[in-house]
Amino acid sequence: MIIIRPITKDDYDALFQIAKESGHGFTSLPEDKDYLINRIKHSQQSFAADIKSPGNQGYLFVMEDTNSKEIVGTSGIEASTGSDFPLFHHRIGTHIHHNDKLKVHKELETLTLCNDLTGSSEICSLFLKSDYRIKGNGRALSRFRFLFMSEHPERFSNRIMAEMRGYADENGESPFWSWFEENFCDIDFATSNYLFGTGDMTFVSELMPKFPLYTKLMTQSARDGINKVHPGTRPALALLEKEGFKYGDYIGVNDAGPALISPLDRIKTVMASVKKPVKIAAVTNEQTRYIACNNKLTDFRAAQIYLDIQDEHLVISEESATALKVAAGDFLRVVKNN
Ligand SMILES: CC(C)(COP(=O)(O)OP(=O)(O)OC[C@H]1O[C@@H](n2cnc3c(N)ncnc32)[C@H](O)[C@@H]1OP(=O)(O)O)[C@@H](O)C(=O)NCCC(=O)NCCSC(=O)CCC(=O)O
């Protein structure tokens, strides 16, 4: 069976392998031993902590094939971005240059460094090994997070944000970043990604332009990168757009990928989910897979399962109950995985 659970320190080797496979443009999982060990430790502390309002917690989950014990994917949530170090984006704006007498009217697009999305909860670190990109696993690995958040709303902001990986060419270079590198900030794209991934933002406040930039002054290829995602990230983007996430006029500082935003309570998975106590019995439905999650923290489990929804109960099999760490009468939150 394939389950989703909180990461543990025994998963370090698998996490490092995923950091390697996902490549350097995948900023939230850099190939950095100390960073990854700390991230696992921080996640374990976050699940164990008694929380009344969101702070610097970070929750990292893994998808595990329980037959082979292989870790096949990761998925994360940061509770409140910008609580440890300032969170930066470029805000896309418009400046109007207008003169009636001279009959000149120009609308000029601008980029302004900002901290506007501070305090949002951020979904991140979504990665599934390619052999497992079948049978709705990717959808489940993205969407279960919204069930987890609706089970524990005190741990999260109502504004959910996702920074999508921005466009890079076949050599792994970002034309958008190349323009900044040439004009402002003498570090290459890989280094800027590494600094972002490990949370070292000092270079942004010290080296990036502080005043609005007219995008008209950038090269065409740099401008074309604005709000454009990396080709490998289109499925992740499609999943979030289907949930109702919208482009919010904010882009990544170094790769210009879009920051997508939605209120938690408007996310389709949250709105369509139901929560009921469990009854363990034979299940008749063999057609529709559901994503199901328990309401625990350190013992959190989610999985795709078949179930029957009755007026009073969710009927699930013994095998599903064991995988989800629930007994008869415990609650599950579920949503169809389509
Ligand atoms: C993101 C996942 C886990 C998704 O898994 P799968 O690829 O198996 O998903 P899937 O079910 O095949 O596709 C999901 C949806 O995208 C659609 N789809 C697939 N390819 C597409 C394309 N090229 N253009 C547009 N839509 C596309 C499918 O039709 C499907 O829509 P329907 O559901 O309608 O059928 C995987 O692709 C992956 O690991 N990608 C590489 C890592 C990555 O880029 N991660 C995101 C980084 S950005 C990040 O981490 C922040 C965001 C976040 O954490 O969510």
UniProtKB/TrEMBL annotation:
Key word Acyltransferase present: yes
EC number: 2.3.1.109
GO BP annotations listed: L-arginine catabolic process
Annotated keywords: Acyltransferase, Arginine metabolism, Transferase
GO molecular function annotations of the record: arginine N-succinyltransferase activity
InterPro entries reported in the protein's UniProt record: Acyl_CoA_acyltransferase, Arg_succinylTrfase_AstA/AruG, Arginine_N-succinylTrfase
Enzyme class: transferase
Classification via PANTHER family: ARGININE N-SUCCINYLTRANSFERASE, N-SUCCINYLARGININE DIHYDROLASE
Protein name in the entry: Arginine N-succinyltransferase
